[in-house]
Amino acid sequence: MSTQYEQINAPRFVVETVGGHEQIAIAAQRNIFIMLFLLVWLGGWTVGGVAAIGALLSTSFQPFLVFWLGGWALGEALVAATLCWLFSGVEVLRVLGSDLEVSHQMLGFTRRRLFRGSEIRDLSSYATPFFGRYNQMPLPFLAGNKTGSVKFTYGARTIYLAAGLDEPEGRLIVDRLRQRLPSTAAA
Question: I need a surface site. Which of 45, 130, 164, 185 has the fewest CB within 10 A?
C-alpha cells in the first residue's frame, strides 16, 4: 500500500511586470453555484420587472408600482454588476514609487485608489472569518468591503484587499508589498 502526498497548490494570484512596474493580479473568486443562481434569479427578476412596466403603462398611475420598480431597478443593477464582477473582475495591487495603488477592473472599467505609502500601517495577512466570506457582497466597487486576506491601517480606517484568497496567500502578498513599501507599513 502506497501513500501519496497531497498536491501543493500554487497561489491564486499572478505576479507580472507591466509598464516597468511589478503588479499582483487577483481574479475575482468564482463560485459556479452562486453564478448560476444569480443568472436564474436575474432572469426571473427581469420577467417580473417587464410585466410590472407593462402593467404600469396599460393602467392608471399606481404610486406603489412606481416605488416597486425603483427597487426592482436597483436589484437588477446590483445583481448584474455582481455577475459582471464574478465573470470578469480583477483586483490589481501595484507599488508606484512608495505608494500603493489598488485597482478593480471589470469589463473595461477601472476604479483606482491610491494610498500614501508613508501613511500605511500594520500591513498584515488576515484570515477572513468563515461567515465573513458569505455576508459581504462580492463587489469591491462598493464601499465598506470588509473581506480580504490582506489588511492595513490607513488613517482611522482599516483597508482590506485580496478578497477570495486564503491567509497563506495573503502572507505571500504582504511579503512582496513590504519589500517595496516604506518600512513604516510594517510597523
Answer: 130
Pick the CATH number of 14-28+89-186 from 2.30.29, 2.40.128, 1.10.10, 1.10.260: 2.30.29
Rounded-to-integer distance, Cα 162 and Cα 57, Å: 46
Strands ordered across the beta sheet of 109-115 = 14-18, 21-27, 90-96, 99-106, 109-115
3-state secondary structure at position 185: helix
DSSP state of 9: P
Cα distance between residue 152 and residue 118, in whole Å: 12
Distance, CA of 22 to chain centre: 20
Q: Find out whether 99 and 154 touch, Cβ atoms under 8 Å.
A: no
The type of residue at 181 is L
> Per-domain residue ranges for the chain?
14-28+89-186, 33-86
- Residue-wise pLDDT for 82-120, tens only, equals 899 999 999 999 999 999 999 999 999 999 999 999 999
Q: What is the pLDDT of residues 146-186, one digit of tens each?
A: 778 899 999 999 999 998 888 899 999 999 999 999 988 87
Q: Which of 118, 109, 120, 131 is nearest to 161 (CA)?
A: 120
